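Encode chain A's predicted structure.
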Amino acid sequence: MEGGVAVSALRITGLTVRRGTRVIVDGVDLQVEPGQILALMGLSGSGKTTILRAVAGLEPHEGVIDMAGKPGLVFQSHYLFEHLSALDNVRLAPIHVQRASALDATRRAEALLGELGVAHRAHAWPRELSGGEAQRVAIARALATDPAVLLLDEPTASLDPARRAELGRTLRALAGQGRTLLLTSHDQDFVADSADAVAILASGRIVEAGPPAAVLAAPTQQATRDLLTNARGKR
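Encoded structure for chain A:
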């Protein structure tokens, strides 16, 4: 608390990303509180992933990003290191970035894999993991440095409906621990079931935002209606 006012885990003000003369993200403002899950939705090319990359420090940008510590990032395609076991993928950053001892890093990695239900796959290679298992290992890797903010790019992309429901429960549990989650998704049902808030992007701008039950059930903007029509057409 500062002056009796709660401090947001993530506050974005005037975020703008340009590539040459093209504006990819155009003056985006966002605020996400501790323990909240905010989903970014929009048609392909709307700027969702670019916002995540800017927050993660992977994209040059204008504007201000205030955040509690460094974020953990889960990529859409996992990007686990194929030459490392699941356990070693999770141990990597604590050992080489935080300079943790091998013993401490191993204990942390084993605990995270256990919490995420993949302890039995600790010594499997990434190519031996199912899509859902790889996703959970990627989340464990992102959590290994104990970030306050977790960024997830299309976390349901490779998952069947049952695994999507499991992932939703996992993310709710992480939010329940006080972590802040910012994710991108095309999955209307997943967002409706799992997110606290949704922001709809079109041409790099937020055109509509609010609780998923309100925004997705009764959209007020044509861009939101177009997004939902497109999603229904792919079912």
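The mean pLDDT is 90.
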